[in-house]
């Protein structure tokens, strides 16, 4: 389950963050600002919370951006995942299809929704990003 959560947020964060940025005290405020911007992008209706639908809609956008050859499947070279993480998600066919990706999104959202209200607030979202980064 943690691998699925890590994959979903790794993809989202990797698109929003240049890989050369290191997590230092100087970049902590940049990281906080970036996290806030990602949250704002996910919060389509601007109500200060992200619903499962908003989360899924935007995660599929990430999927389509990553799917460079537009075959509706992600290969290892189309993701930012370490080989072992990709292999554990992709299974025997060596690809992550849209249904597998949606399953990852469901798991990530449910784990992040710590108060079980069906919505992610800024604190839940920030906590999830923090957990993903520390893994």
- One letter per element, helices H and strands E, the order comes to HHEHEHEHEH
How many angstroms does the end-to-end distance come to? 13 Å
The average pLDDT score comes to 80
What is the CATH homology-level superfamily?
Answer: EF-hand
CATH architecture: Orthogonal Bundle
Strand content: 5-15%
Give the structural class: mainly alpha
What's the main sheet like?
Answer: 2 strands, antiparallel
Radius of gyration: 14 Å
CATH topology annotation: Recoverin, domain 1
Helical residues, percent: 55-70%
Can you offer a commentary on this structure?
Residues 100-135 form the EF-hand domain. One of its GO terms (molecular function) is calcium ion binding. Pfam families: EF-hand_5. It comes from Azospirillum baldaniorum. This protein is 62% helix and 6% strand. The protein is mainly alpha-helical and 135 residues long. The protein has a single domain (2-134), classed as EF-hand (Recoverin, domain 1, Orthogonal Bundle). The strands form 2 sheets. A two-stranded antiparallel ribbon has the order 1-4. The two termini are 13 Å apart. Residues 15-22 have low confidence and may be disordered.
List keywords for this structure.
EF_hand_dom; EF_Hand_1_Ca_BS; EF-hand-dom_pair; two-stranded antiparallel ribbon; signal; calcium ion binding; 6 helices; Recoverin, domain 1; 62% helix; mainly alpha
Detail the topology: elements first, then pairings.
Elements: H1 2-16, H2 25-42, E1 50-51, H3 52-66, E2 73-74, H4 83-90, E3 96-97, H5 98-112, E4 119-120, H6 122-134
Antiparallel strand pairs: 1-4, 2-3
Helix pairs in contact: 1-5, 1-6, 3-5
